[in-house]
Amino acid sequence: MGSIVTIATSKGGGGKTTLATCLAVGLTTRGYKVAVIDADRNATFNDWHRSNYEGPEFLSLAEARHVEVIDLAQQHAETHDVVVIDTAGFENLTSSSAISTADYVLIPCMPDRGSIREAMKTAHQTQTLSRAARRAIPYRVVLSQWNNRGLAEKATRDDLGAAEVSVLESFIPDLAAYRQLTFTGRVPVDGKVGEQINALVDELVTLQAIPDTPSGPAIASSSAAPAAGGADPVGG
Ligand SMILES: Nc1ncnc2c1ncn2[C@@H]1O[C@H](COP(=O)(O)OP(=O)(O)OP(=O)(O)O)[C@@H](O)[C@H]1O
Ligand SMILES: [Mg+2]
Question: Which among 71, 59, 136 has a CA at the least distance from the CA of 105?
């Protein structure tokens, strides 16, 4: 039985699909059998996967209906190590369903006030749905589009700390390659970027958010094409 990891924040453009992409490709490269369910009516991820994605293969499905998304996630958790659900950028019933059926919720947060506010709202929503379901639904905020030395980043950490919101140590760096993803279809998994994604996967294993042993062999990361022009951090 695999894990269901739901990626949610009510902040539009908050980094959900980018995090889902990093996680899906990072996990697949490590040998995990991955299914992504695109629960956003726009189906941005699923369209991108079908038309642009170049890299080690994983299953991508689109389901934006609030009952069906639960059935689909649970069904694919039987045959996959990890089911990642990418949700829409506003509060809606399907996102609530995806949070309710999750083993773990990841809430991306970029270094700006709007992202912090929506991340806190989504953390609160997760806690409330957890009480409603009478079971623990753990969550962590994932710092996204992140430059560890930035001033806005420091203020964001302070605000999240003051609100006692749980934050992952690993973060998704601010990378030109992620901005270009919709054009290139190539997800960087080599070098320093690969190490950061691996650190995220390791942390999720430690938190028991995902299984510690993948069911397949790891894929040499060179088989996932590196981003065109390298994966240069945008500022540090
Ligand atoms: N780590 C990153 N580095 C650079 N750019 C990023 C990063 N994460 C996200 N972006 C950019 O920010 C924009 C929004 O990101 P993304 O599409 O992942 O957000 P989203 O939460 O899925 O949006 P929506 O709410 O519309 O579904 C995109 O243009 C994306 O390329
Ligand atoms: Mg999205």
Answer: 136
**Both tokens of residue 4?**
């269901």
- 109 vs 130: CA distance, rounded Å: 21
| CATH class of the domain whose range is 3-212 | alpha beta
Percent pLDDT > 90 in the chain is: 85
Predicted local distance difference test score (pLDDT) of residue 221: 60
**pLDDT tens digits for 39-56?**
999 999 999 999 999 999
Judged by its nearest atom, the ligand closest to the C-alpha of residue 14 is 1
pLDDT per residue as tens digits for the range 9-31: 999 999 999 999 999 999 999 99
Q: Cα(13) to centroid of ligand 1, in Å?
A: 5
Ligand 1 atom closest to residue 87's alpha carbon, by position in its atom list: 27
Ligand 2 center from residue 172 Cα (angstroms): 15
Pocket of ligand 1 (CB under 6 A): 12-18, 40, 89, 144-145, 172-175, 178-179
Half-sphere exposure at residue 2, Cβ-oriented, CA atoms within 13 angstroms: 24
- Gap from CA of 21 to ligand 1 centroid (Å): 10
The sheet with strand 3-7 has its strands ordered as 59-62, 34-38, 82-86, 3-7, 104-109, 139-143
pLDDT beyond 50 at 231: no
- The amino acid sitting at 230 is G
Is the pLDDT assigned to residue 37 strictly greater than 50?
yes
Atom of ligand 1 nearest to the CA of 181: 31
